[in-house]
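Work through this:
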Amino acid sequence: MLLLSAASLMAAGVSAQQLRGPESETDTRECYVTWPASNALDKYVKNWTPGQEITKTYEGNRVAKDGWEDEEFFISRVKLRPLITNTATQIFPEYTGNNDKKLLFWVPCGVSNGYFQTGTLPNGVFDSEVFSSWSYVTHYGNWTSPYGWVPGGFADAAHKHGVLVSGVASVPNASLTGNWQECIGAMGNLTDDEVAKLGDFLRYHGVDGLGYNSEWNSSASYVTNLSAMHGKLVKHMKQYQDNFENPWYAGTGDSGSSPFYECLSSNLYGVFGTSEEPRTIMFLNYNWNTVANINTDKTGIATTGRSPQDLYLGQNMQGGQSSDRGAGYQNEWLTHSEVPYSIGLWGAHSNNMLFPTRVTNGGSDILKQQGYQKVLEQWFTNGKRNPAAKMDITTSKALSPNDNFQGMSRHMSARSAYGWELSDEPFITYFSLGNGNCYRMNGDVAYDNEWYNIGMQDYTPTWRWWWADELLGTGESVPENSMNAEYCWDDAWNGGSSLKISGSTTAGQTQYLHLFKTNFNAFETTKRDTRDLYLGLNMQGGTRPASEWQQHDVGGQAQDYSIGLWGAHSNNMLFPARVNAGGSDLLKQKGYQEVLEQWFTNGKRNPLHRMEVGVTKGAGPTFHGMSRLMNARSAYGWDLSDEPFITYFSLGNGNCYRQEGKVMYDNEWYNIGMQDYTPTWRWWWADKFLGKEEADVPANSMSAEFCWDDAWDGGSSLKISGSTADGETQYLHLFKTQFSVKNNDIITIRYKILKGNGDINFVYSKVGSETEEVTPTRTSIHKIGKDFFYDEWNVVEFKVAPRGATALSSGDWAVLGLKFANAQDLEVLIGEMSIKRGTSNTPQMPEIRSGKILSDVVSGFDAKLFWTMPNSAAAGDPVYNIDVNTSYFELWAQVQGEEPQFMGTTTSWAGLMFKIKNPNHSNRVRLGVQAVSLDHKSKSGISWTSDYLTAPAHEVSEEVAIDKSCIKPGEEFRVTATSTLYIQR
């Protein structure tokens, strides 16, 4: 008799129930998902037959015996949304045209370590990266993605917010040889017809540019030919989309050598292109902050005729720049406030540098996730997490959370793509970020496991978090005791998270939380201008001049140019910083969001704080943030007839997956494609609506953050907490929109009060009168005196109708937010905010292509499934989910003899399932998928594999597991052995 210990079997369930592959050349395990080869794009394109699945890969990682089967994981099914423009809903109205910097976030998303990487593929790990500060990023160059490819779910999350995506050709810093020499040479020698085919290939897969870590040495002909190809490619793609960008690191120039250019010299003109033939956006090396270099940039822009926003001043988020480069390198942020160039953030190779800092709040998964969201808000909004708190631009470079950081919101406007036709698609968000500890549907747990799928991220608030005591209030309008908004994974209506709002308002006070910038009727076509020039910043960090940031400020030499952020090769430099919040998965996730908010908003996580440019180097309480140098962009402006606006504030990961607040999948998960629409501003708190002055920032601002403790749908929600002073109102500005809202449209707010009490109102304004809060009597979400139970989901619905002062009125809505008054120690989760028009068509049932059981371990099966949707598109034309009346897909599994199990969601036409429960040790499983309508009200019915699939041999491991990956002094942890004791005779 052989006794297999509980300890030996336990870890197999812990470690195998997630995305995996061989960890070395001698490891014989098959990849769950095989990535495309990064140095073979030319081969993929030349051998591609439009309308036919690609079954060959050139990657060294092992593929299935029958060939490559994973192309579907790298096809985006969400069309790139156009950004909307409305200066009246900007914190800094002066950020227009060339004054509104762009930001290239040239960092990994998801972790890439060792022989096999997970990146942003769907996963069974809740503590995965759900980046959500989209409104301050114009191009996300994902360093964990191959040249010419990105995971479809990641592209889905970015596209729904109007953000471009690309992979990177990570060519070694050496002579151009081997496969890379062959690939670069072949790409440069493409014929005109082959360039057009390349463009069609990228468009079909949802890729918006070709990125190059160009630091190789070669003959000039390689660069000359490649650059000419880029010009033709951009011209071809402009037929289909307004923006298509090829990020180029200024290591290698026209001559083929790599001296690492620090300015736009004549040696880069061929690579860069001209106004008549733009070729790349240029990410400068990190030593750009000298008077001579800035003057050379000015000459280069004038000579090429390109927009200064196409030149990015590089920031290395890793740190470590030598101290002998001059005192001027302490003033990069100040320089950014003075020059018209863009911001480029890099760092680093294996992970985003903000993500590791998520552990600052603690070591649990929930605290890490909350920590990551806070880091995001402090980086991109500002240290106060309210863009209305206009923090001074720092004099040194921030690379970690900082309450005084001015944030990216200090340098640019918050962008929004919320402006579509609601008759085509309603606006729906459950504030699910795309991950969760479980998956909830209608508040009930449908999948009781952690999950991650960023493609399922809902529409996110435009501002994180714009609180004010008057509608559109800034500066002095920031509530003195601002309430708090945050994502929360404790509960959700649909998905893994919700929006949690907490805090108190003083007697007579009203606080507004501005959520979404919208314009669902009007769009503005963006033409190439100075903002196409990106000034690169290396996010790896080091001794850098704060003047770089100051040059980007209004009146600075770089004010008309965009910002390019790079760092680093294998991970986004912000992502590792998530550990500052603590070592648990939850704390790391919270830490990452905080790092994002500090970097992109500012150190105070409120773009209303006018933080001084250049005071600190990067993400942290005193950092000015990207919001100090640019506006928060928004793509929330589509036609609501085509697709509703729905966000559950789910970031695309969770400790479980919830639907309608109930745990449907009780395992951690990650799928960034399931990330909801995220707030435009993180977090614009003000004590008056659309308050834009420093004085509008509440003295004791409430707080907003993502929360994984609960969700209505997905893995997280928005948590708002705090109190308002007597007579004070605090506004949280969430979404910048241009939605054309019509009579009979339904606005839904789903919330859960955890503690305290207060008056909560939905607030909005219209295009043309953005600062005028529309105040019908029927916008109350919750009011003191109303009967309610703590810790229960509540829902309010407002119908747009022509009823005078009592009802919400139709028109072009510019800002969506929340208003708080009389709040006393309030903690509230927001699990859904949506605008729906009518009822969307029920999608047809998916058609199963194939399925496979990947492993059998003590805690269940892992599997993958492929399908297609009935459609009439011509061969080679992209088919988006909206074309087939689909918002996303539910994944299901059924062990023979057992009940069907909900396994998560995805926006891709391929799904991964982890930890399919197998209580009776069967080896037969069938897999299923069903499509969910655009308004999330109906489903197609489940399509199953034609038969039950046979699982491979059961695996046994001798490993043990610890419950935390990072342990702070004095923090408890456990080493456990929980698996069943097996007796084998």
